[in-house]
Structures are given as structure tokens and as C-alpha cells.
Amino acid sequence: MTIRETLEQREKDLLSKYACLSTQSRGRQRDEEQCDIRPVFQRDRDRIIHSKAFRRLKDKTQVFLSPEGDHYRTRLTHTLEVAQNARTIAKALGLNEELAEAIALGHDLGHTPFGHAGERALNKLNPNGFIHSEQSVRTVDFLEKDGRGLNLTYEVRDGILNHQTTNMPMTLEGKIVRLSDKIAYIHHDMDDAIRGNLLNEEDVPRRIGEIIGYSTRDRLNHFIHDIVIESTDKNDICMSKEVDWAMKELRTFMFEAVYMSPIAKCEEIKAEALIESLYHYYYEHFELIPYEMLRLMEQQGDFKEQIVCDYVGAMTDRFAIAKYEEIFIPKTWHG
Fold first, then answer.
1. Do 264 and 63 meet the contact criterion of CB atoms below 8 Å apart?
2. Structure pTM?
3. SS3 of 270-328
4. Which fold has domain 3-328?
5. What is the spatial distance between Cα 94 and Cα 96, in angstroms, rounded to a whole number?
6. Least enclosed by CB within 10 Å: which of 96, 222, 288, 312?
7. What distance in Å separates the CA atoms of residue 9 and residue 39, rounded to the nearest whole number?
């Protein structure tokens, strides 16, 4: 028996009857030989961590554009917090931690530079729209490894695709990530807003605090405990009605006080304009896009607008600004 088979048997012996076992995976898009050490979901997690798209998350905006300070979240630290929340919940419920972690680590791989401002810009420009969850799947299917993709399992790809509010993942582990994402960004965005003097803890309505606590730490702890308690011995991942209401109220409060705040969002118009300028430039100078992306037109039959979105959307904030300056900002002439 290989190490992988021993670990797979351990899953069967120890995990909940509702867990998605590695041996139950629907498989990959392309068949490949099994690893002798790692079960399939662990292998997916490793592939995501070693991908270029994952490394680029460190220089992509979470909420605050170009914050002054070392302790504000980026898209990478957001992803790690989602993964930690998901593992904690999955472990407590006897579900597959490695599947939950793989989905969490991959859920935002397709996010644009400058957060949702970049996503809005590309969504307007692409005739088929641009949604970061769909782009994350496109990233792992085609854009990584020079068009070969990461060849992830069906369950991980499903969890990545359906981590937003529109659709529901097929596994409980995917449903955990879906809630963990919301919990993470509400928690850390409020923490960053307090650090940036956009909010004080006292601004949070008391009707919310009375249910889930009066500090970011208490609220995170309450959310996770509530999910574990409400989901134990159930074939579902859920919150109590009271805590679910409080989370929705807190999210509404955050939109009004932070996400739509003129102070927090004053740079977003500039960011959208920058992304639009880069899109139009590379659409007109299509030959400047890296060959491995241009090749997708031949391999997948993708249209030009999508390839431009692939290139611009994959940029980090820093790289996008550098390209904009290189293309549009006049340089000093030294003679």
C-alpha cells in the first residue's frame, strides 16, 4: 500500500460521512497518473500554491488602493485568512480540510489589479463580461503553465467557480469556503478601516454587536463557532438565523460606511480609467501580448477581447501602473 493509499484510508476511517473523500473525486479534465504520496486534493493545493497566479496575489489590492502602511490586507493575505477559516471549520466538522484549503487558496486567482474596480472595468469592456470567479477557473484551466493549466479536480474547480453568492458549490467543503470568504473580508476589511481611521469600533450598530460581539476578534470567533454548532451532524453548512441576520446587517453597514465611502474609494475612478486605457492599448497592439496567451485563440477559439482581458486582468497593481507609465507618460529627453 502506498503512502497515498494509507492517507486515503485514514480519510475513510476518520472523516464525517458527509465529507468529500479524495477517492470520491470525479477526477480531472485530463487523466494522469496518481501521486504515490499525496491524495488528489492535497496535490491540487500544492499546484495552486506553486502557481504564478497565486504569487501575484501579494501585489493585488484587497479593498484599499495603495495604502500607506505595512499591515493592510492584500489579495494574498485575504486568501490565506479565508483558507485558515475554512480549515478550522472543516476540521471541527470532520470534513476534508485539504479540499477546503485548495478551494480557498484558488478562489481569487482570477482577480484583477485594483480589486473590484479593475473587475468592473473589464466587465464593461468584455462583450461576455468579466467575473473573477469564472476567471479564476479559466486561470487554473488554461492560463497557467503556458496554456496547459493546472488540471485540477472537478471538486476544487466547482468550489472556486461557486464561491460567490450566485450559485452553490456541490461539496460541503466548497460551501465552507463560500461562507469563509464573506466572514474573512467583513472581518479584515473592518479591521483595516479602523486602522485607516475610516471607522471606530463604536460606529458598529449596537443591534449587531449585541449578537456577534463588539470587536473584530469577537465577531470572527462568533461566526466560526456558530457555523460549527449549526452544521454539526448535518449534510449542509449553515448559520443560525440570528447570526445570519447579523452578518447581512454588518455587510450592509460595511458597504455604506467603507466600501462606498468617498475616502476609501476616491482612487477607484483613476484605477478604472487606468485599466480601460491598458485594455484599449493592447487591443490595438495585440501583438504585444505574450505568445502563450495569443496561442489560446488557436487552441480554444477564444476571441480577441477575452485574450486582452486575460493579460490585463492577470497584472498586479504595480505591474499595471508600470505599464501605464511606460506607455502613456512622457519620459524626460536627455539629448
1. yes
2. 0.95
3. HHHHHHHHHHHHHHHCHHHCCHHHHHHHHHHCCCHHHHHHHHHHHCCHHHHHHHHHHHH
4. Hypothetical protein af1432 (1.10.3210)
5. 7
6. 288
7. 10
